[in-house]
């Protein structure tokens, strides 16, 4: 494989070119009885793992947080 082939393979992995997904933290940090933050709706494990997650994993967590928040506030 030529050097150009390696370069093109790297470009195909868009995760290295993406902007980082921002944390949903709003500095209201309190866990409920289910270990879900009442501010950002992430689980304790999601909060502690956030810095190690890929952008794809972070977007999956954000989708879960939206579902959790919608359970609490159905008018979203």
SSE layout and pairings?
Blueprint: H1 3-12, H2 44-49, H3 55-72
Verbal overview:
It comes from Candidatus Endobugula sertula (Bugula neritina bacterial symbiont). By secondary structure, the chain is an all-alpha fold. It has one domain (22-76). It contains three helices and no strands. The longest helix has 18 residues, at 55-72. 9% of the residues are buried.
Instruction: Kindly state the percentage of residues in helix.
Output: 40-55%
Measure the end-to-end span.
Answer: 51 Å
Average predicted local confidence, pLDDT: 86
* Total helical segments: 3
Low-confidence stretches: 1-12
Q: What is the beta-strand fraction?
A: under 5%
Largest sheet: none
**How many structural domains?**
1
**Coarse structural class:** mainly alpha
How large, in whole angstroms, is the Cα Rg?
Answer: 17 Å
- Based on DSSP secondary structure assignment, what is the total number of beta strands? 0
Order of helices and strands: HHH
- Tell me the overall shape: globular
Pfam families: DUF1289
InterPro entries: DUF1289 (IPR010710)
Protein name: DUF1289 domain-containing protein
């Amino acid at each position: 494989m030529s050097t150009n082939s390696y370069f093109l393979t790297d470009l195909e992995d868009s995760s290295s070119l993406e902007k980082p997904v921002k944390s949903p933290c709003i500095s209201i940090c309190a866990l409920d009885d289910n270990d879900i933050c009442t501010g950002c709706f992430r689980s304790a494990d999601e909060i502690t793992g956030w810095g190690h997650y890929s952008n794809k994993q972070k977007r999956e967590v954000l989708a879960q947080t939206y579902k959790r928040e919608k359970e609490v506030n159905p008018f979203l």
